[in-house]
Amino acid sequence: MHFSGNKFEDNRGKLLFNNDLNLSEVKRMYIIENSNTSIIRAWQAHRIEKRWFVAVDGDFEIKVVEVDDFINPSDKLIVKKYILKAETMDCLIVKPGFATSIQSISNKSKLLVFSDYLLGEVNDEYKFDLNKWK
Question: What pTM, to 2 d.p., does this model score?
Answer without folding.
Answer: 0.91
